[in-house]
Structures are given as C-alpha cells and as structure tokens.
Amino acid sequence: MINLNDYLDPVSIERPEWLHIAGSSTLAHNLSINTASNPVTSADNFRLAIIGVPDDRLSVREGAAKAPDAIRTTLYNLSRLPGKVKIADLGNIRRGVTPEDTMAALGDVITTLLDKGVMVLVLGGDSSLIPSLATPVAALYPEYTYTTIDSRIDYVNEKRENNPFNYLSGIINSRNHQPSNIIHIGYQSYLNDPQVINRFRRRNYELLRIGEARSSMHETEPFFRDSHLITLDMGAVRQSDAPGTFAPSPNGFYGEEICLLARYAGLSDSLKVFGLFELNPDLDIRSQTAAMAAHITWFFLEGFVQRHNESETIATDRNGRFVRYHVAVDKAGEDLIFVKSSTTGRWWIEYRDREGRVSYLACSYNDYLKAGDNEIPNRWLQAVARKG
C-alpha cells in the first residue's frame, strides 16, 4: 500500500480578498484539506477524495496545469453542503519527470483510494490524463461503463501518440481498460468526423447529441446512474459561459445545464471516479470559466451527499422498496420487466445476457411508457446487443 503523501503536494492557495459568505458557512468547512500545517495523513475515514493534477505537457496549449488551484479558489468559498459527509482534498499529484510518470502516479493514487472504498474527484489538467482514471476503474470493474460529457468525440482511426484529442483511442483499443459501454453526452455533429460517429454507433455505444440532451435534460439521468467513470470537458459548455478552454464552441450547454448534469453524476449509484478537464486559466476572462468549473464541482458534490445507492439492492430487496411491472412487447419475444423505486421514483429495466445472467439497466419513466405502447426502449436493445 502506497503512502499518499509521497505522491501529493499539500494544498497551497491564496486567501480570497473578500468573502460573500461567512467563513463558517463555506464549503471549506465541509472539507478536510491537506495543507503543510495541517496534513491529512490517511484517507481511511473519508467517502470522497479530491485530487488535482497540474499537468498539461501533452496539450497543444499550456495553461491547464493551473486549473486545479484556480478551481479551488472559488470552490472553497461557495456555500457548505448539508449533512456531515466526510470529504478530503488531498492536494495535487506531483508532476513526474515525464507526463507518463504523472499518469502512473495518478493511477496508483486512485487505485489506493478505490481499494479503501473512497470515491475520487479529479481536477485536471488536460484530457490526455483520462486513461489514468480508466485503468484503476477497469481493474475493479472489468465491464465498466464510461460516460463523457464533451462537444467532441476524442477518437481518431489511425494510431497516434496520446493527446487530449485522441485519448479515447487508447481507452477503446487497450486490453487493460476497454469499457463495455461508452456513453457520450453533448457531442456536436459539425465538430466531429461522421466516420467516427458511425464507428461508435456500430459498437452500440450510446451517443447523445447536444440538441437531444438539451431538449429533455431529465432523460440524461439514467445514463449517469449506470456509469463507473465520468469525465467532463469544459469545452462542452458554450463559449459565452466558459471562454477559458483551448477549443471553445459558441454552442454547447448553458451553465445551469452543465451543473444539472454534474449533479446527476454525483447522484450516480455506480460512480467511482469523476474527472473535470480542459480548463485553461491562461485563456480565461476574469476567472469566469474557473468559477463555472467550481460551480460544476459544487453541484457534483451536492449530488454525491444525497446518493441513495439503490442499484445494488434491487435484486436482493425483501422490504418492498421496489415495485416490478411486466409489460408485454411483441417484438421483444418476452415480457419486459421494469422496476420502480418507491423511495426515489427512479426506474430500471431488467435484461439478460446470453448466459442468462440478470442485470438492471437504469431507464426513465418514458421508457416504461414506450413499452406500454409496444415499443422496445433503445437502451434495452443496445444493452442486449452489447451483451449478446
């Protein structure tokens, strides 16, 4: 077992010039912050740990290395969270001699935290770091689901060195951390290669265009509920709300929308690692994008402290917490079985792989209504195709 303090530098940021909220009511008082004068020596008693990764050496434009502390400057001064969930900010990963050394250290730290049952929130840094998040998740969950919120699908068909615009190629083609499913939320068609989109669809990966996501935001929640790893690229937010990114787009999610998606991510029953990437303070305007990233982080944490962890108890429930509905759908060849939580009102649909093993796929009430109209929900079809 590694000593985390051998891999991490303590948090060291300047105090704000002014506080809108009284110090005792800020988020900083929810956190145990690893500082030089008050070190956090063990993560054993925490439910979530925050880690910054100040490395951008594989990026086309330097600056993202400054992002973790830029986010903290605003984050610490937002309102405190309800309850007494134990969260630690462990500081920043020490930069290695090479970017690959940094990535290896990040993977070691995440592995150690996951082994302790601690969920991890990573503040990047550029997107080339994401494979370091995938490897430890895949070690624990070989059939894990990866969800990314991004305007671009960062994949290329030819073999290239890892960088922020092709990191998905390494994840998909790796034997060590290839996910069983990839969910991509918010892609913009005009920013992507149609051949790449078609390749992903042939693999039955789940792609949601920006227009589809924005037209019905609550329908995105089930995608997050099934995800073990979630990453968010600040380039998914429209340029007017988040100008401080290397490749901004005038279209994208509004600030309120991206914060809602982050909250859904925090609520996820399955999630083990969440990462926020591609904030570049050097390109920012009056710290607007850093503040947006801090708000996204806050909403993620708010969702996390309100998690219900229902998914793991569906099959074993004996207390009537879940209600089952059998719906006959002609083309399915069998009844589709829907499960509803009487506590949260959330829905799941049952499916089997070719060995007959039962799994529960997060879905929405609209999926149940579609089945009632004799239509097979698309999520069920894609899940069966991947498992078959």
Can you describe this structure?
It is a single chain. This protein has helices spanning 67-75, 99-115, 131-140, 167-173, 194-202, 210-215, 221-225, 255-267, 288-305, 365-372, 378-387; strands at 8-9, 31-33, 48-53, 87-93, 119-124, 145-149, 181-187, 206-209, 229-233, 273-277, 322-328, 335-341, 347-352, 358-363. The chain has 388 residues and is α/β, with parallel strands linked by helices. It folds into two domains: 4-305, Ureohydrolase domain (Arginase, Chain A); 312-387, no CATH class. Strands 1, 2, 3, 4, 5, 6, 7, 8, 9 and 10 form a ten-stranded mixed β-sheet that branches. Helix 1 (67-75) crosses helix 9, helix 2 packs parallel to helix 3 and helix 8 (255-267) packs parallel to helix 9 (288-305). It is globular and about 65 Å long. The mean pLDDT is 93.
Q: If you average the pLDDT, what whole number results? A: 93
Cα gyration radius (Å): 21 Å
What is the CATH level 1 assignment of the largest domain? Answer: Alpha Beta
Number of domains: 2
What proportion of the residues is helical, as a percent range?
25-40%
Give the structure's gist in a few sentences.
This protein has 11 helices and 14 strands. Strands 1, 2, 3, 4, 5, 6, 7, 8, 9 and 10 form a 10-stranded mixed beta sheet that branches. It has a 4-stranded antiparallel beta sheet with strand order 11-12-13-14. It has helices spanning 67-75, 99-115, 131-140, 167-173, 194-202, 210-215, 221-225, 255-267, 288-305, 365-372, 378-387; strands at 8-9, 31-33, 48-53, 87-93, 119-124, 145-149, 181-187, 206-209, 229-233, 273-277, 322-328, 335-341, 347-352, 358-363.
